[in-house]
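Incident log, support desk, overnight shift.

02:14 A customer reports that sequence design results differ from what the structure should imply. Their input is reproduced verbatim below. On-call engineer (initials T.W.) acknowledged and began investigating.
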């Protein structure tokens, strides 16, 4: 069975408005009709009362009442008055209700039907009664003689049929006013319905409720941060993960707030304020590495805002960094294997040629150099992870034709800080130095110092590269700065995060003999120191 079609909000509102408008117009028309009827009836009362008072005050009527045959005089007079005034009856009677005139001559001499007591008391009045001609609005006025005594009565009336005919003449006017009012109100309701239908996309209440519930549940449940902005750069939505990643949990309601007024990381603020497209762009938010994707949102070709999604890759970056270190060490070992194979072939050839002494000298010299480097690193650095990192970087530097020197003063018996943070600082500073000297003319040199100085852990890396311009020193530890031409590096920014987390400081300046020296000073916790 086909699903029952649901009315949209616009359709329901239009039906409700149409019903209300019809009811209002009907009530207004009914009220106007009632008022018109009341006015018509009141006008009829005033009309018959005026005629009755005029007839009652006529000297001819008083004289006729004193004659021997009042009907002979009063009947023609009353009929002439009735026709002239347009009333339905003019009846002159005696105080005992005996009629002297009537539109139906057979009723002359009969008793008048209806109330006359107020007129007998000397007061003219109007009333509605049913008489020989049917229901009518009538007026009864007293006829007085020269001494003021009531000697007769006059009743003038209009039947209800006549009053209704008068009222019917006003119906076209009432309909003429109600019709345009209904048309104008209906057209206004149609315009409002059209606008509302466009704004609600023709959805019904149940559909919009279901959409809101589903969308709200999904958007706040996904593991990606979501920030939606309007076209005027105001916040339309920030889901729970977005609040967590951007540290907005303590912020009040963010909806409709300008993005420029939010306390956001600079990289995120730059993305949101510019509205530019971004694809898997790394940004730093506090101690987290986020991957940002931003695109403009359009509906049926119209720009409706901007959508920014954020993924937390802090842990993945740490694992990637460790993997890069292992890969670098593997590459270095592979290069050493090839180098060792070449030297081994050389020594075997020397032995085959009978030049044993030279073969022994070559093997002893290479073994001594390798052992000397290992002894220096292991002797200076007790932490096995850091020692392995330095050895791997030494092999990597040798493969690139760079002389990596461990300064003689380098000494670290144990790591006073978390090993991962120490590896982040040393590894990224050394990588930055290797990149700085890449492509420069020999000799290429990188010096490394790690040790405790004055109660602080100091990491100092110098290179013989082209140096760092003074105007770029302040940007060195910001996200996106790199010695690479792409300018998309995160290494030094990660170093800056570690420094901030431990309350340390950094120093960037020229190295002795040219190049750049990066120095990081990290306070050693009291319980460790």
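02:41 Re-run completed on a clean worker. Output:
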């Amino acid at each position: 069975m086909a699903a029952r079609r649901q009315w949209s909000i616009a359709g329901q509102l239009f039906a409700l408005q149409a019903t209300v408008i019809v009811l209002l117009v009907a009530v207004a028309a009914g009220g106007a009709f009632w008022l018109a009827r009341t006015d018509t009836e009141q006008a009829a009362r005033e009309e018959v009362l005026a005629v009755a008072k005029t007839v009652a005050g006529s000297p001819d009527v008083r004289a006729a009442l004193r004659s021997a045959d009042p009907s002979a005089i009063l009947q023609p007079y009353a009929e002439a008055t009735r026709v002239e005034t347009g009333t339905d009856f003019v009846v002159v009677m005696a105080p005992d209700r005996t009629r002297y005139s009537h539109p139906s001559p057979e009723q002359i001499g009969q008793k008048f039907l209806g109330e006359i007591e107020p007129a007998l008391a000397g007061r003219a009045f109007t009333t509605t009664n049913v008489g020989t001609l049917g229901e009518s609005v009538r007026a009864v006025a007293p006829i007085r003689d020269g001494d003021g005594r009531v000697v007769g009565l006059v009743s003038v009336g209009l039947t209800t049929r006549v009053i209704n005919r008068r009222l019917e003449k006003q119906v076209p006017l009432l309909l003429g006013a109600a019709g345009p009012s209904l048309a104008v109100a209906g057209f206004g309701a149609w315009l409002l319905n059209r606008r509302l239908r466009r704004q609600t996309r023709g959805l019904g209440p149940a559909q919009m409720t279901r959409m809101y519930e589903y969308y709200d549940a999904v958007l706040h449940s996904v593991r990606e941060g979501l920030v939606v902005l309007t076209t005027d750069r105001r916040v339309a939505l920030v889901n729970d993960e977005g609040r967590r990643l951007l540290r907005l949990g303590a912020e009040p309601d963010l909806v409709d707030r300008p993005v420029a007024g939010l306390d956001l990381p600079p990289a995120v603020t730059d993305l949101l304020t510019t509205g530019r497209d971004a694809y898997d762009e790394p940004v730093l938010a506090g101690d987290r590495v986020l991957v940002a994707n931003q695109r403009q949102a359009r509906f049926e070709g119209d720009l409706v805002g901007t959508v920014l999604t954020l993924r937390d890759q802090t842990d993945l970056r740490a694992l990637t960094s460790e993997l890069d270190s292992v890969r670098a060490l593997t590459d270095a070992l592979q290069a050493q294997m090839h180098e060792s194979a070449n030297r081994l072939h050389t020594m075997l050839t020397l032995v085959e040629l009978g030049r044993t002494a030279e073969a022994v000298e070559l093997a002893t010299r290479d073994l001594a150099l390798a052992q000397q480097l290992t002894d220096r690193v292991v002797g200076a650095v007790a932490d096995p992870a850091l020692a392995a990192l330095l050895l791997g970087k030494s092999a990597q530097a040798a493969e690139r034709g760079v002389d990596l020197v461990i300064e003689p003063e380098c000494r670290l018996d144990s790591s006073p800080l978390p090993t991962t943070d120490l590896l982040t600082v040393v590894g990224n500073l050394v990588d930055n130095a290797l990149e700085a000297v890449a492509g420069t003319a020999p000799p290429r040199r990188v010096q490394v110092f790690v040790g405790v100085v004055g109660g602080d852990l100091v990491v100092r890396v110098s290179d013989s590269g082209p140096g760092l311009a003074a105007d770029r020193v302040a940007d060195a530890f910001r996200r996106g700065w790199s010695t690479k031409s792409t300018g998309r590096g995160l290494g030094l920014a990660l170093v800056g995060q570690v420094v901030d987390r431990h309350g340390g400081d950094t120093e960037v300046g020229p190295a002795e003999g040219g190049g750049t020296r990066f120095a990081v000073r990290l306070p050693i916790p009291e319980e460790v120191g």
